[in-house]
Amino acid sequence: MLVWPWTLLGWLYLLVPFVCWAAVVRTRAVGAAVFAVLAGLAGAIVGLESEWFFVRFTAELEAGYPFMAALAILVGVLGETRLRGPRPKNRFVDPVSGAAVAICVHSVVGMVIAFAYQLVVYDSFLPSAAEVPLPPGVTLEHADEGYCGSNFCSRTLTLRSTGGLPASEVETRVRAALAADGWTPGRGGALVHPHGWLVDRRVSEVFLGGVTVELSGAEGAATRP
Hints:
The chain is α+β, with helices and mostly antiparallel strands and 225 residues long. The protein folds into two domains: 4-119, no CATH class; 129-223, no CATH class. The chain contains five helices and seven strands; from the N terminus they run ααααβββαββββ. Strands 1, 2, 3, 4, 5, 6 and 7 form a seven-stranded antiparallel beta sheet that branches. α1 (4-24) packs antiparallel against α4 (95-119), α2 (28-49) packs antiparallel against α3 and α3 runs antiparallel to α4 (95-119). The protein is elongated, with a radius of gyration of 22 Å. It starts with a helix and ends in a 7-residue tail after the last strand.
């Protein structure tokens, strides 16, 4: 299976707002501010895809990226108009119109992504280790790459106590941290929690065994008690 076409599309998805803003920017100060906002939004997308961190509204952020970027660009254009007056018209090239069309297409892609999440809402998935909240004094020592079966995906996490706590106490503290984060009892002694927020309705589950945590992303309905 070819990966590079999807990688290319992913980079295009990230970079379209930067190209649009570069086409319409007129001032250094406003230009730098908007570029910083766009870089922050794009960096958040890259961080989520690279599992540098995890948030429940990942799907909303990925699908809403074009709309947030468009808002930043619109604020930048209005700010520059206030500082420098109306934009001079060019009868050959209208960068504002071109950028507006590109942003509209970009937004449509975002809506397609939101729709695509609904198509996989009950599919198995490999959760990020960052989904498991760790209490003070407990750190993640190792997380394997995980594997997927016919209707579930799973990975094993190995925890470590920085204060030399026994495995039973580590499990007790992790269980308390999960409960405080909203994880609820599921079937077979598991704790379950919605993987996403509004768009992504899949469910994550964990099985605790001392310093070992099995983190799974089964089909949405399968993890319900």
